Amino acid sequence: MGYFHAMHRVVALVRPVQSTFELGCAAEVFGTARPGTERRYEFSVCTETPGMVPTSAGYGISVSRGLSALTSADTVLIPGWQPVEQPLSPRVRRALLRAHARGTRLVTICSGAFALARTGLLNGRSATTHWAAAGRLQEEFPRVLVEPDVLYVDHGDVATSAGAGAGIDLCLHLVRKDHGAAYAALVARYLVTPPHRDGGQTQYAPPPPPSDALDGLLAWVSERLGTPLSVTDMAAYLGLSPRTLARRFTDQLGTSPGAWLLARRITEARTLLEETDLPIASIATRVGLTSPVNLRRRFHTHVGTTPGAYRRAFRIPESLTRRERGRPSS
Q: Is 8-191 a domain of CATH 3.40.50.970?
């Protein structure tokens, strides 16, 4: 994976009434100079009509740059879009599409996904937004594959994040992708936030109604990933037929038991690749994918790269890991 060598230009597109937190997340990651840390991003703000832009905090921000700022951007970031039903003006839509056509990366935080969806660039692709707005995004844009649980979705040319806090997760992911895990970890340490946060946003949403059908099954499976589990084994744990289990999974999780199990194995493999130096063969065994060949094939299908390339891009150096945990380097 190549890293950017020149200063990477990030331009945030704001509008009335602009959320200060979403904009602040982007500014902290991409625009704040820190002692002893090399600047690798140039951050600026633009708006359709330059001037004073009111914010959700009750004060205005003076924005002098117009949409022409997008022509020189490497990344265009939309830090929220309120109200979500606000349409894109023809000028903004054209500017975003032209930027994308030039190869500019388009990134959204929280409700900004609604603006990006109105360009048509998310049609047929997965995306996310705040859990409270995910249903509305799916209803309004049925051609978008909304993933309500994940913290962010990155397709390379376009990326969306869940709620405002997940915007930091996405921004740090992009830094890690652009400049490597060590640099992203350094930025995260200044922010006093984890460089990588496990899990999706479901843990922050109100819990769904209790489900007797899957009670304990997912945890039971997660503890046994290294064993040759089958859908039949999962069904037997609950005393159901495989067909009935499949219906329950579809109704409650929106996927099949087999697809969920494979995704869970891949997730665990990613964690082991990021946090350990275990050989690929050992990881394949630990997550129940039996062989390095099978792990590589499944991993590439789901993640879009090989386990080895993923580890090289995302493995945090042990010295940094020790310091983050408060342990001295030996």
A: no
